[in-house]
Amino acid sequence: MKTIGIIGGGASGMVASIYASKKENKVTILERNDIIGKKILVTGNGRCNYFNSRQNLSYYHSDNFENLEKIITIDRVFEVEKFIRKIGIIPKIKDGYYYPFSNQAATIRNALLIELKHKNVEIKTNVLVKDVRKDRELFEVITNDGTMKFDKVIITTGSIASFKKDYYFNGYQLATNFKHSITPVLPALVQLEVLDDKKFLKKWAGVRSDAVVSLYEDGKLIKEEVGEVQFTDYGISGICVFNLSRFVSRGLYLNVSEVIKINFLPNLSSFDINDCLSLLEEQDNLAKDRTIRELLAGILNEKLVDVILDISSIDGFLYFNDLTDLEKVKLASNLISFEVKITATRPYSCAQVVTGGVKLDEIDSDTMESKLVKGLYFAGEILDVDGDCGGYNLTFAFLSGMLAGISCGER
Ligand SMILES: Cc1cc2nc3c(=O)[nH]c(=O)nc-3n(C[C@H](O)[C@H](O)[C@H](O)COP(=O)(O)OP(=O)(O)OC[C@H]3O[C@@H](n4cnc5c(N)ncnc54)[C@H](O)[C@@H]3O)c2cc1C
């Protein structure tokens, strides 16, 4: 009988175990926590957004795009959807985002647990894996509960995202002990801190507003996202901001200047100053005898109006036509292209995932087996893959777990 050790009982480890388990294989999950699948419970605000009908590679990121596109094929992605359906989950689909019909993340975890039970997977909790070594053909797994031996091992330890600063995480160490390389690991899907030299952060704190956010690195447009931005006393948050954060993390790490331009008038005005000026003039003609502050308050949250007027150095009690051409242009520019300099991301403890991890060029893209060590496999967030908000990270965890499990279980 072949023995397979799964290091880490999260999303990828659970799926890998299900696929690896067969009559002739003995699969054991080693999990440091007191239960497996703990992180699944907090995903999607407790609802678990596990999949998205919008699928293409632009939602997934890695330093090694060539290998990423070999791993994440559209057939494999939809195999994940089928798998979740086959373990009894009926989806509730909203704008392409898949949640369990129950609206409870626990439903996904429970369905995986039942499947693990049917497949006779052994689950050992409160077991911290301290080291993994290969002694000839066998892997020796050293834990706080003694040493175990396996024919094959899948490392699915996830990442440090969402844990407190003092969280002991040795997932990368387990990989580097086998001479695997790690691309820089940085927070992703995380809030951004903004330079507050003009003291406006306290003024806009608590506001939520639809906007277009465009990320510029050293003046070059990198990515644009549309959605609800949450304005806070440290900077900006919200799904659209999260989706820019992995680029910001990597840019700041490389000392690149990171600027976000905010268009507060999505759908109302284009990014063109003249269109915005026409809109303001139209408003001024429509709503008579309004000060500029009153005029803007008809469009935007009042706190944002104050910030924009302050930054534009415009007295809100003036009328639109009292403004000089230069002031009008400045105002329009701050309405559709409000520039903030990003100084940092929030720490790992606030991040949903990390960007970076075990390099993909050292991993076989069909089997997830290490190219350096026969019989050693990786899956999930430990790898240098991160996805946008929208279910892409769990989809990758499931997909890579599926590939590792199939291959490990068969050969
Ligand atoms: C707040 C939050 C919300 C999220 N929401 C979503 C969402 O809605 N949709 C989405 O797609 N993604 C979401 N994610 C991301 C998603 O949860 C992760 O990408 C996914 O769980 C990664 O799966 P994994 O199996 O690689 O790692 P994990 O799920 O983190 O599992 C790794 C496991 O390994 C264990 N482990 C680690 N080291 C050891 C060791 N040395 N010995 C033994 N065990 C070990 C850990 O305890 C853990 O149980 C969210 C993340 C967070 C934090």
Written overview of the protein:
The chain has helices at residues 11-20, 65-71, 74-86, 105-118, 171-176, 201-204, 239-253, 273-286, 292-297, 302-311, 325-336, 392-410; strands spanning 2-7, 25-30, 51-52, 60-61, 91-94, 97-100, 122-124, 129-135, 138-143, 146-150, 152-155, 186-188, 192-194, 208-217, 220-231, 235-237, 258-263, 338-345, 353-355, 376-378, 386-387. It is an alpha+beta fold. The strands form six sheets. A six-stranded antiparallel β-barrel has the order 13-16-15-14-17-18. The protein has a five-stranded parallel β-sheet with strand order 7-2-1-11-20. It binds flavin-adenine dinucleotide (FAD). Flavin-adenine dinucleotide binds at residues 7-13, 30-33, 38-39, 42-44, 48-49, 128-129, 156-158, 161-162, 170-171, 352-353, 380-381, 391-394, 397.
Number of helices: 12
* Helix and strand composition category: alpha+beta
Q: Would you count the extended β strands for me?
A: 21
Strand content: 15-25%
Return the average pLDDT rounded to an integer.
97
* Sequence of strands across the biggest β-sheet: 13-16-15-14-17-18
